[in-house]
Fold this sequence. Notes:
Layout: H1 2-11, H2 18-21, E1 103-105, H3 113-121, E2 126-129, H4 135-152, E3 154-160, E4 163-168, H5 175-186
Parallel strand pairs: 1-2
Antiparallel strand pairs: 2-4, 3-4
Amino acid sequence: MTTAWRRAMVYLGLGPDEEYDDYAAQGDLGDRGVEPMAPVNRPAAVRPTPATPTPRPAAQAPIYSTPPDPVEGTSVRPVPITGEDPSKPRVRAVPQRSNARAHVVIPTNFGMVQEVADKFKAGQAVAVDMGQADRELSRRLIDFLSGMCYGIGGDMEKIGNGLFLLSPVGVEVPADERRRLVSELLGD
């Protein structure tokens, strides 16, 4: 069993270097009834020249129904998308909704984070008031919510003492809505 492992290690290149020179002599050939070759002792300076590779036939070019039109001296051609006007840009701007009214959540346990995440994923701004949460719960909620904002895409900002505003991409909460949230939730 040890010799099989040793042979495998040598075959994979994990064995000692001196065993590579005479690998063919001690290989599996002797086990199959074939006489192993005698090791060839060559001087270190003389190495056999590698055989020159034979050229492979060139791959046949793909057949097009119409010849490709070169674009500014290249062989690249644009592929039109069916059903769309190729002259119009494919990237569209995300419309900003500035009249967004924030959904208010006052969490008392960590399970309420699902309500915040559902509203945020639906594209609605969420105001989270940590006033009734203890320090440990508050820390866990902030960690989760900041990760959610980063992962889904959006912004999380502190707008008051323990009051956080989460706004998804494309949603802008106006300044008067921010002031309303601070005054209602914090009593300022």
